[in-house]
């Protein structure tokens, strides 16, 4: 393209501005953001306890069970790889005479305006992660906050592997618990029934570990509608 002599100064001035802005764009450092729990952002997960799931232990009679949401920070159990605060939603599954929490999903909230800044990243215990890598894990967004499922930062296993690992662990511990050498060396509290129904159902194959995947599927399908401002929950 030919540029008339009279327009050359304007052309070069515009080109210089383009180069200047491009340089600033490329040189501007990433905005490193730290995730927070929904409560810290003024939100909450509403009414998870309303959804009931069949007890995985046949004839246990002490449940049905509900999802359990917990707020914590990186120093607490279940979140060694996250920075900042978070929510973890777990399946409370009966084992022995109590309930064990099996984490299903970790959540972190960010200011929506912040993640539209220049090259935003969020902090983890293992360094920054670009938000573009987390786009497929978006759970909820409004003008105030954006919530991501950050489970992939915490563990590499899919939910089927989590279920199978928990099943194998329960079977191993049940066999040890019922070993005569263990029982003879352990003081049994008065009135405690041995073996317990959960242990028997694990060993005879009737314990319904699929409730883990049922709960996870429910979260994936319904969680966005259950994230609400705290004053509306």
Question: Nutshell version of this structure?
Answer:
By secondary structure, the chain is of the alpha+beta class. The chain has six helices and ten strands; from the N terminus they run αβββββββββαααααβ.
Kindly describe this structure.
The chain has 233 residues and is of the alpha+beta class. It contains 6 helices and 10 strands, in the order αβββββββββαααααβ. Strands 3-4-5-9-8 form a 5-stranded antiparallel beta sheet. A hairpin with a 6-residue loop joins strand 6 and strand 7. Helix 3 crosses helix 5. The radius of gyration is 26 Å and the shape is elongated. The protein starts with 7 loop residues before the first helix and ends with a strand.
SSE inventory with pairings:
Blueprint: H1 8-27, E1 32-33, E2 43-45, E3 68-73, E4 85-95, E5 98-111, E6 121-122, E7 129-130, E8 138-141, E9 145-149, H2 151-154, H3 159-177, H4 180-184, H5 197-203, H6 211-222, E10 227-229
Parallel strand pairs: 1-6
Antiparallel strand pairs: 2-10, 3-4, 4-5, 5-9, 6-7, 8-9
Distance between the termini: 62 Å
Strand content: 15-25%
- Count of helical stretches: 6
The pLDDT mean sits at 80
Shape: elongated
* Strand count: 10
- Structural class designation: alpha+beta
């Amino acid at each position: 393209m030919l540029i008339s002599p009279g327009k050359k100064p304007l052309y070069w001035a515009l080109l210089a501005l383009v180069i200047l802005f491009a340089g600033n764009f490329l040189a501007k450092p990433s905005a490193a953001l730290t995730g927070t729990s929904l409560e810290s952002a003024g939100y909450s997960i509403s009414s998870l306890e309303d959804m009931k799931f069949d007890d995985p232990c046949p004839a246990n009679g002490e449940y049905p069970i509900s999802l359990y949401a917990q707020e914590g920070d990186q120093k607490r159990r279940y979140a060694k790889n996250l920075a900042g605060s978070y929510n973890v939603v777990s399946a409370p599954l009966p084992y022995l005479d109590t309930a064990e929490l099996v984490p299903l999903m970790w959540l972190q909230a960010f200011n929506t305006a912040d993640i539209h800044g220049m090259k935003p990243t969020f902090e983890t215990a293992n360094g920054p992660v670009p938000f573009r890598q987390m786009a497929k894990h978006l759970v909820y967004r409004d003008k105030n906050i954006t919530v991501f499922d950050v489970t992939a930062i915490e563990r590499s296993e899919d939910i089927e592997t989590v279920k199978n690992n928990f099943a194998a662990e329960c079977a191993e511990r049940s066999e040890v618990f019922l070993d005569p050498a263990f029982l003879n060396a352990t003081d049994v509290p008065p009135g405690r029934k041995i073996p317990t129904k959960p242990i028997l159902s694990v060993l005879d194959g009737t314990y319904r570990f699929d409730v883990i995947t049922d709960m996870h599927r429910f979260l994936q399908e319904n969680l966005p509608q259950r994230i609400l401002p705290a004053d509306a929950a």
